[in-house]
Amino acid sequence: MKVYIVYEKSNSDMYPQKVLVATDPCKVSEAVRAAFEKQDKADAVSSALSVQSAHINRSRMSLSWRCWTEQIEIPAEIRVPTPRGEIIVREQDPEFPGVYVDLLPNGKDEQIPLAIVESNPEQNNDLCVYTYGDAASDEFTHKIVVENI
């Protein structure tokens, strides 16, 4: 999965500011365009706008502004070795954004579900954690709704 981070910075800023973090490339071009359109271009010597970046060079005191996009590739799964086997975290169904957490026991081929953490659109997008306390069952044993978010 790719994650896009859109930044903007003028040369008078100490650090860039995040404008957007998204997985949808269409939102990137919208964010870059919106950031570009907010800028005053009255004293611009040059300016340019593309799908993933923009810049403005100003006439007074070499001031400039730019907006750019960085792409980060996120692995499909993360594996963490433990004495009992590998804990595997992987993305789940896009309709229920979240992750599966499974255990692949040493010497075994089949994963055991440990937990699911998801944003549940059927429950007001509550953040829910389902835990599997019985390794011999495919049914979750506990459901926790994260509160005060």
Description of the molecule:
It is a single chain. The chain is mostly beta strands. It folds into two domains: 72 residues, no CATH class; 69 residues, no CATH class. Helix content is 9%, strand content 51%. It is built from one helix and eleven strands. It has a six-stranded antiparallel β-sheet, with no helix packed on it. A five-stranded antiparallel β-sheet has the order 2-1-5-4-3, with helices on one face. Strand 3 and strand 4 form a beta hairpin. The longest helix is centred in the N-terminal third of the chain and has 14 residues. The protein is elongated and about 70 Å long.
Sequence stretches where pLDDT stays below 50 over 5 or more residues = none
In total, how many beta strands? Answer: 11
The amount of beta strand, in percent, is over 45%
Count of separate DSSP helical elements: 1
What does the main sheet amount to? Answer: 6 strands, antiparallel
First and last CA, distance: 26 Å
